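Throughout our pipeline, every protein is held as a single compact record rather than as scattered files. Such a record has a labelled line for the sequence and another for the backbone structure tokens. This encoding replaces a full spatial description with a residue-level series of whole-number codes. For reference, a complete record is included directly beneath this paragraph.
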Amino acid sequence: MATSVDPATIGQYGTVRLLSNKTNHPIASYPIDQPTTTFGRDEACDIRMYFLWVSSLHCKLIFEDYKAFLTVSSPNGVIVDGCGVFPSEATGEATTVPLTNRSVLAIHNKRFIFEYPPKELRVKAFMTPRPKSRKSLRLSMINAAHILTPARGTPRHLSAALDLDVLRSPVKPYAQSPLKEMREEEVRVVDGENVVVVEQEQDLVLLEELDEDTSKSYPEPQTPTPSTPIRPRSNSKARMSLHKAVLVRNSRRALQRQEQDPGAPSNRPQQAGEPPATSYDQHEQHEQNASGHQDAGQQDYAVYSDEEEEEEQEEPQPVIHLTEILVNRQISLNLASCYRNLPLPPAVSASAKAWKRLPAYLGA
């Protein structure tokens, strides 16, 4: 038979309920309004458990994209749905496991059940911030022998000043510890004004409201939450891709120019029986390669997709000349021919003589 759920106990991310060890019914509810909820005996934890077996930061409930995960950092571990979860034995790093709706967590002799918001309220709960009327809550558990408790019976609100004074008095919950430092440690179980006290066997369960200025920050985790590392992309790959792109672009331009102007110098590879390339052609090719490397170094910010890189790798890399160099070469040949047909004045410089001999050097 389904039981009605009090909407006031439903948090933005869900609810953690403390179960009775006898009846298996919830005896206390903690609404989750923050993406991180901590369990432990540290005073800064959201759910404080003042027992020797519990670590300072035992575990924490975290949400990523509104999905619940439990990170266990205590060597004593947590039982999640009947399976023990412990930190890594090799490195000691915390272990993170996902939680499903109504997952049961067992810490010490306390059992909690985690619940997402009901389906009909889930979207509204995720999108709606915590109501301003609801203050921050804190759940604490301690052995009743350390505190003067109210009479056994049903839960009730503590409003008497004497009861609040007793609960606010410092106590030593670790008197049985073999460590002297822990035996002398004092804690104050209650700080707020409105407190609900429930007795569970020999322990007290206290749910209190806190003002925003009195709430404490979360304790520092012992180990960072595991995450997928992000490896930066190497720049050398982008530079090489850019160099290939420059060569392919100039190759296409040269082929288009050759189709439009059949009389232009050909960029095709050397065929059998043809004379070898001149030293000028080799020098020109060297300058072209150097220019391509320089362009790649100046534009290393360019980014290409993986598909473009695969296409560039599959396409063969022809032996080409830059269009600009081809144009300059043709202009040089024309100028040299003009100089050869003109008479040289007496005070001509050595450079003019060189220009006149240039056609023979170029094989024109």
Summary: The first strand starts at residue 14 and ends at 19.
